[in-house]
Design the sequence.
């Protein structure tokens, strides 16, 4: 099956409009030069009622918007029409958080003349600062007025925090003789170590899929994409992925496992994997994307545990930043992965566009050319291949290097 | 019970001699200016046979010296006389690692005319580089010749890698009408996230304790000291704590739980806690010690999980470096701790020698003075008090801030 990459992000699928604007959630005096002119609130609206799946952070501290989104989806039986999201303030750990998040849904519902429970809400930014509602009250009429089938860029920039680039991806595929599309946008740069969810991600499709299978596909694909991503080991309080299907592609609704479901799920994987890589590459302060591919595992969970352990190691991340082929740190990280492995079988290779080199065989070092390894590590996309020789399962995890700029960005994030 | 702090480190207890020297394990061309004139190998010898307890890393990649030490202690029934240790090379992930580690024990045994299984061995440094044995062969006669009851400083500097200060601590206490002493030395600065063990730590005592209770005390105290320490989340392959008791204080051997055992265990806690704090404070690139005290927990494991989660958070570590009272990151870290907690009961305070301030109550932010908080965070020892209001258990964990220098040190460690 071919998935054609297309433009349009969350507006790529038929019948999805979006808009974004700057409303001044942070007082301009507090704004850093980078964020001053960036949108801070956005709206996504479907032309038809959507089957909607969602996954949320496993952090026990949950952002108020997440609680309200969850409650609304429960009340509506998994149906939604609109999503409002803001950056610069997470609306988390505030006594009036739920009240403010509900108010955001109400504002959108009133303006669009739809039910409040069909509006979902998400926030990202600083934790524990009271969210000013006035700027959002003023912004909602503008957001509704400016809704557009090409508004994806305005929306994608509105959810950025320390992100340096907006993250959008979309694909097109054939199903049932109809052209279907899946597109998404994501934000995130720090506090990223998703656990059954990730930082804000919104995915839209016009492909008709039953609510049950939509949730199943989302949960399955999250496990091998966003949940295999780590920037800094910190699981956010506001992680959320929302997947909305309005069925406007007019394919026969996918209600059973089978070929059609597989086509849809693979397309969803494509979009979520690409967004995951964009998130990793734009990790706070990052100069290099690190991809660890673990193969030869007895099961997928083992492969995930090993791959994630490698891309999470602060020490290895620093070595990648320094372009130092310090493979001992890879072995060390494999060794403390929460998985049952026989270290004496393990091979490790370093790879990039500049070549590939074996650095460890049977769990011990091999004589390799440091010059050649240094050349490979010059790339801004580094691949670590780990072979366990203990089965046929595999998984990939994505992360980034740890740099001076990560420390700089996070040494003084709030001011 | 009073524990008097005394000098002498591993030589504080009666009948322990030590020595250290520079033998050139790394070719001098490779040596950085900092390490060039530092000792790189040391020897510790007891005047009498010691009951010896040990704990080892839970990393599945285990250094060869650790395997040999474990085998020797099994063969000798938990008795030892001497320990040889080197820095600059971990002798881990090398095909000839065990052979080299055994050779180190043999060299010492031959020179001291003792059994090989009474010699323990430890190594620390780069993983995956073949250990040159010749420099050690040459050094052993010197080490034996220079053994001294005041040789603790020479030994403590020989195990340093990226450490900026040597770590020694010792206490004296009365037991059974006799004066007993416990002293220790530790190394470690990076790759520190101990799990049932920690980076190299050697503790000696002249207090007579049965082998069984010695191991029990060590395992119990490790859990609430070294295992509550994290510099960077990376569990080392060569972690090891060795506790040797030669009984030369001539107290009646402690063979049962009771008052004497408690006195000994508390003294051991004192030494290991102080060494733990030294390790945290000298974390790679660190400018500040972070201590998280969790109280009001339903059990000790919950308190440990919460306290460790806070001191492990890269984001909070960066905030401490930037002296930013970003308490939302503390709440976030508590939220993803592997423990069952009710976040709506949680209070958080920041404390230092400059004062104390409540920043979060019932899981939500309180209105506090940012100026006052900034003043408190200027200290180089920051305490985070977390109250769970869900029981009477407590625990403390130690870590350090994450700084530019951590990245610098680890971007190019091998050269």
Sequence:
């Amino acid at each position: 099956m071919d998935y054609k990459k297309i433009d349009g992000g969350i507006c790529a699928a038929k019948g999805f409009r979006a808009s974004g604007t700057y409303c001044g959630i942070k007082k301009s005096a507090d704004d850093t030069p980078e964020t001053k002119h960036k949108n801070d609130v956005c709206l996504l609206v479907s032309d038809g009622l959507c089957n909607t799946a969602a996954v949320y952070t496993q952090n026990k501290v949950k952002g108020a918007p997440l609680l309200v989104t969850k409650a609304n989806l429960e009340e509506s039986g998994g149906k939604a029409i609109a999503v409002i999201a803001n950056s610069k303030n997470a609306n988390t750990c505030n006594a009036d958080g739920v009240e403010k998040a509900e108010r955001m849904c109400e504002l959108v519902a009133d303006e669009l003349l739809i039910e409040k429970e069909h509006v979902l809400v998400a926030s990202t930014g600083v934790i524990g600062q009271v969210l000013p509602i006035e700027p959002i009250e003023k912004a909602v009429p503008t957001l509704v007025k400016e809704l557009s089938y090409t508004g994806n860029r305005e929306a994608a920039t509105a959810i950025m925090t320390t992100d340096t680039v907006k993250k959008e991806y979309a694909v097109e595929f054939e199903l049932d003789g109809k052209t279907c599309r899946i597109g998404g946008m994501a934000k995130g740069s720090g506090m990223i170590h998703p656990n059954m969810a990730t930082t804000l991600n919104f995915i839209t499709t016009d492909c008709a899929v039953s609510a049950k299978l939509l949730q199943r596909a989302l949960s399955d694909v999250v496990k091998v994409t966003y949940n295999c991503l780590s920037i800094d080991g910190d699981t956010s309080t506001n992680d959320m992925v929302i997947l909305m299907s309005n069925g406007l592609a007019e394919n026969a609704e996918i209600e059973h496992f089978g070929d059609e479901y597989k086509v849809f799920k693979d397309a969803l994987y494509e979009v979520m994997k690409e967004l995951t890589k964009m998130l990793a590459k734009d990790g706070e302060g990052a100069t290099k994307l690190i991809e660890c591919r673990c193969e030869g595992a007895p099961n997928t969970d083992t492969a995930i545990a090993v791959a994630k352990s490698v891309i999470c190691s602060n020490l290895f991340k620093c070595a990648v930043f320094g372009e130092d082929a310090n493979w001992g740190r890879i072995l060390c990280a494999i060794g403390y992965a929460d998985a049952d492995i026989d270290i004496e079988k393990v091979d490790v290779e370093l790879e990039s566009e500049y070549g590939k080199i074996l650095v460890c065989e049977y769990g011990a070092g091999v004589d390799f050319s440091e010059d050649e390894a240094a050349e490979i590590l010059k790339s801004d996309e580094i691949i670590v291949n780990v072979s366990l020789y203990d089965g046929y399962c595999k998984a990939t995890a994505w992360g980034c290097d740890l740099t001076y700029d990560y420390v700089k960005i996070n040494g003084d994030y709030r001011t």
